[in-house]
Fold each of these.
Amino acid sequence: MKVIGVLTSGGDSPGMNAAIRALTRAALDNNFKVIGFLKGFKGVLDNEYIELNDRSVSGIIERGGTILQSSREPRFFDFNYRQIAYSNLNNLNIDTLVIIGGNGSFNAAYKIFKESNIKVIGITGTIDNDIYPTEYTLGYDTALNTAKDAIDKIRDTAYSFERVFIVEVMGRDYGQLPLEVALSTGSEIVLVPEFRIDLEKIAQKIHTFKQKGKKHVIIVLSEGYSNAFEFYNQLNPILKKYNDYELKVSVLGHIQRGGSPTARDRLFGTLSAYKAIDAILKQQNGYYVGLINNKYDLIPLEEAINNKKTINKDLIRFLEEIAV
Ligand code: F6P
């Protein structure tokens, strides 16, 4: 009987459980044995795993996080530790290891593909949507909606006190999540790592909003642009010159990573698993499941690790055009 291994690694994302569930059940249906490694690559290195069956993955499609737990395992980037991992995987007769994670996890997956006899297939799992060239990554929609809900609430209080809020949003050094959060909440200013704006210009813009009668201003700040409190310390003295609004900070933080996955993420996790099983049955190796032209496709891991995704900067200008 062939054995499939599965693990979740790096930042967890809503929908990972849907992918584990679908992958496990489809694999069992195709007469594979399924081993779930615990805490990502840590489980591979330390031989911590469980055998998954139909029942161990029931009641999880609606749960955020990952039942297999996750970690960022620095030991895996040491060649000598990787030899231990390969030997552990071979002792368990793992034919294919399915790695659910983001760019860091795909880097590790590529090393396994290059250095060992174990086949690897990736499933995207990151709220950052920063893996090249897929149009979508698992968990993004839930994170976007969580941030949208939070900012809708912040706007209520911002209006009541006529305040400017800096809202720090995750996404690392890729600006798509903050940009789409800003566009879907009608925020007035977005600051992403790919497009820096002079502080004086930001202050003048806010002053113009006041003159136009705006009751509040929301600045969506990418964590990759600046830490929100440092940004506050830079902007506040300049804003004070105009004495228009009071400035406040809200860091959304890890609430963006949790929560029950949206229908889109449950579906994306499930259908990514469908494509992954198909790839395993066809003995494919060194690919990840992504979305290209709205179709599920197998993409070489090499493409993901050698390229960086870019945002559409025109949308920043468009946001400015409509935030009047
Ligand atoms: O990659 C997902 C992500 O949530 C990023 O948006 C964020 O920068 C990072 O992980 C936070 O990582 P940690 O949970 O290790 O602090």
Amino acid sequence: MKAVITGGAGFIGSALGRHLLEQGVEQVVAFDNLNSGHKKNLDGTGIALVEGDIRDYDAVLRAFAGADFVFHLAAIPSVPRSIKEPLPSHDVNINGSFNVFRAAQHAGVKRVVYAASSSAYGDTEVLPKVETMQTNPKSPYAAQKLMGEQYASVFSSCFGLETVSLRFFNVFGPRQDPGSAYSGVLSLFMKALIEGTSPTIFGDGEQSRDFTFVEDVAALVWKAAHAKDVSGRVFNAGNGNRYTLNETWKLLQGIAGRELTANYGPPRAGDVKHSQADTALAVQYLGHAPQFTFEEGLRRTFQWYKASLA
Ligand code: UD1
């Protein structure tokens, strides 16, 4: 069996690659342009790296030859980056995704699992967020990710390609790169704690997220590759909980055994206030069963940063 992970050298992609190998997939290929992914994430794993860009259709088609499954995770992430530089994220997240679906169809891939985003919901009065809700993207990134899942669905209905979209809810875990201002907030919190610096919290810190541990996401993605009667559908991939940034920062200080005062800055443009997944549909159709509490995920992640950054 062969699986190709676009964005496979990223922190989620490389965790997924490890999971697939553990599940007995013989050949796992990471197709990645190393824009935000890293070769070192694949060290010692047995995952093969094919360097390439999803905007290059021929390269994508070559990489997909003989693949049973494609996991489409490659993207330019970040809500604020998509506001500052909308063109590159549009090009990669929309045109690149179109290439991925088209190449998967032409290569005869059995199923594509697409990494959609919880940002598609925007701000809603009602929590948790259910798949049947009206979407309301508040940033180019959110709109692009929503377009990607709509394309996934259309490739299923018009071209017979099996697709499943999973709306990831703020994934965190080992190997998330804290190296940019656009990095995920938990990677920045971890780095601050290890370096003894103060993180910046945008707004009052009372915004909340359904932070989802990367290993739970990897397990769910693999389940989505096999589930029955799901082609063209969209599922939440979250934990079903939510924590404010203030709560999270406090929890992390406890785990690290270190107290540091956070700086508070103005709220960030395009930010969603609260995010929390309704997991019922994913449980029903995909057998979603998260294994890690938020605190356990934080502990494991902190241990990893401590070992690799200190
Ligand atoms: C959004 C999506 C998420 C997606 C991610 C990709 C939502 C609800 N979630 O994450 O599914 O995977 O984009 O990039 O839309 N923050 C700080 N200080 C910092 C950095 C961030 O306070 O230094 C705050 C942000 O303002 C935000 C929260 O932390 O309120 C989370 O930010 P971030 O980690 O960037 O992710 P989202 O934008 O929520």
Amino acid sequence: MTEKIAELKSRRQEAGRDFIALGIIASAILMFVGIGGKVLPEIFRNWLEMGPGPDPMLVNALLLNIALIIFGWRRYSDLLAELEQHQIAEENARALAETDMLTNCLNRRSITPETDSLINQANGAGKHVAFVMLDLDNFKQVNDCNGHQIGDLVLQTTAQRIKDILPGGSLLARLGGDEFACVVSFDPSHQGSVDQLVNRLIDAVSRPVLTGGQEVEITISAGIATTGANTSAATGALDAKCLLHYADIAMYHAKKQGRNRYFWFETGMEHQLRLRNDLEAGIRKGLTNGEFIPYYEQQIDLHSGELVGFEMLARWVSPELGIVNPDIFIPIAEELGLIGDLSGKLIEQALSDASQWDPAITVSVNISPIELRDPWFAQKMLKLLVKHNFPARRLEIEITETCLHENLGLVRTMITSLRNQGIRISLDDFGTGYSSLSQLQSLPFDRLKIDRSFVGDLAHGKGDSGSKIIDAIIALGDGLSIPITAEGIEDEATLERLKKMGPLKGQGYHYGLPESAEEVRARLTRLGRYRTFPPEGSAMQARIEETKHTAGRRNG
Ligand code: G
Ligand code: G
Ligand code: MN
């Protein structure tokens, strides 16, 4: 590429020199006129024997002049040819800059001006323009699993399939990566034609791509924005840049809704997106500012009524939003890749809080399926336990049933290494995630937690199904010798029914809402189960020592 540019440059310089040559020719012609005007009449007169011959010096000068003009003319025609070539090369370079090399479509730079001129054309013809943003789903996986060459082939095939379907006069660009944009004009009275077109695109792209005996399956998500009323109602006049932005938002919405589908842009989406971006920024900021804190829900031995443990439940104390529940921020933290960090901080805080509690009280923590995929997870837990000098047998890790579908082998290894350290593992929300009996038998769980939906059914007297399921789970736990906790006990009646069903632990709002560390401290202090003397070396102990010391000096 650089060689080509250097060649173009040197040709341009040559052409510049040739312009000087052209100047010389012009002066040569002038001289020819001047000298010729004097010499030629003398020659004629000499021929007609009417006078003496011309001055030989002037004749030589005239001949030299003629030679110069011929030479100059040839250089000039060469120059014109050069210039023409130069122009062609420049045009080629411009075409290259406007084209996506892999697929031969337009690229991100050229789609905007091309769209703007299509909009102008359409406006003149009483038509509207639809901008369709298309993004392959999980394309990274195709690259990772099959290599970049296959990835490139998938992109080329996709581009070709889209081209085959688009009506004449439409635009197609690859904006980069696995993102395409097509722009079509349509009759405003047939908006349905855009839906039809996009449906056909989605169908065509999701046909498997055959590559050297392999089949690659791919789907696509799309967003549509048009110059018609539905997009412009709230936004006014639309140019290519706006359309691209709105189509992108609609495409993002399609991704969020589960991919392999399309959405028309609606103004609400922009609002949602802003909200989502604010949430993401807030979570990042909250993480560095320590805004995520543990709350604790009591766990009770149903028969003795004794407090035996707490389940730690994450809360986000946001300066803007107040107290936010984990079902809002955990999925976002997972998507942002922050869950390991967040969870680590929360668990560390919980261990630190719990070291002040009666050592008979256990702490349960929830972890996300994503953390189970971290090969260092067990290591990290061990490090935290050692750092806080916290006995592993007091820690219980809750994993939800849905984890088991993701990678049974990995989960088994993880559970085994956690249990080898002495940490206990419970299966959370049991009954909602369809784990099979064989999985239960092959995985060494220390506890099952019956999902609160079944426990809730008990009190609301929805037939006997609730109690039958709970009976079945209790029998299962008996058979496998796994103890059981019932979640979501909300009233005395439920508690009484559960008590009759077997030896259970339980938790729920009947015993109070989840509490902050401070409230737990007050509760345990009332019960005489809070350690008033902090463990040695703690910050509190250091402060007490210091106070004693200064008080001693003052007194002495
Ligand atoms: O507290 P509750 O309110 O809304 O909890 C909702 C869900 O969030 C529960 O299913 C619980 O398992 C989960 N959850 C609470 N805290 C944490 C946490 O620290 N990490 C993970 N991964 N999930 C949590
Ligand atoms: O990890 P898990 O999905 O089990 O999270 C427990 C969730 O259940 C938390 O959000 C907690 O606030 C909630 N919860 C705990 N006890 C009760 C209860 O008695 N009733 C209801 N509706 N929810 C409860
Ligand atoms: Mn739980």
Amino acid sequence: MTQPTWDAVDAYFSDTLVGHDPVLEAAAAAADAAGLPPIAVAPNQGKLLHLLALTVGARRILEVGTLGGYSAIWLARALPADGTLITLEIDPKHAEVARGNLARAGLDKVAEVRLGSALDSLAVIGAEGGEPFDLVFIDADKVNNPAYFAWALELTRPGSLIVVDNVVRGGAVADAASTDAAVVATRRLHDVIAAEPRVTATSVQTVGSKGYDGFTLARVQN
Ligand code: SAH
Ligand code: DHB
Ligand code: MG
């Protein structure tokens, strides 16, 4: 099975279970029109994030890596009216597109895009001392994933869920000899998680319109 099959199956699942969604389609179109890279989560993956947020009863969500706000819309739609999503983005153009998309989705009251390097923004959020986040979605530069994960642990509570995108990257994660910085960091992330008693975690491989990749899911333990 190769990419055309994965594309067809993703289209089938998205057609049947996700459906036509003008707000999300407009957000994706606006990101394309602005020249953003086509690396947002797929529709059925976005819905998975939405389901995970609903399942943990998320009231506060943190996202690292906004792009055009596509995954942020899926996540924020799982929040109650008084919920909060903070999403972190380093690129001013991406942040601007995302703010427009979130406003058109009617989510600008619950969703805030913070511009800047995610590590800087995370330090600010930590210093603000707000309520813990119930779900963290890590999907920015992969080399910083160990640091983003450490912050996610700092900013969550027992029962929170931490999701990391793009942990497989075509299978390269299994190559212990890899010198690719993203692969090295992803392997370090797995070592950190394996040695971390505060979480229980697994990683799963996925195929689909985004190619061959996968997610890590880690639950903060009681
Ligand atoms: N979560 C989005 C996709 C994010 S793509 C979705 O599925 O819709 C990754 C994003 O992370 C890009 O917009 C990129 O500009 C941003 N990014 C990369 N390095 C970053 C950093 N150091 N701090 C914050 N954002 C960063
Ligand atoms: C890339 C980044 C992502 O977050 C993703 O889901 C797919 C690809 C990338 O940088 O290539
Ligand atoms: Mg990603």
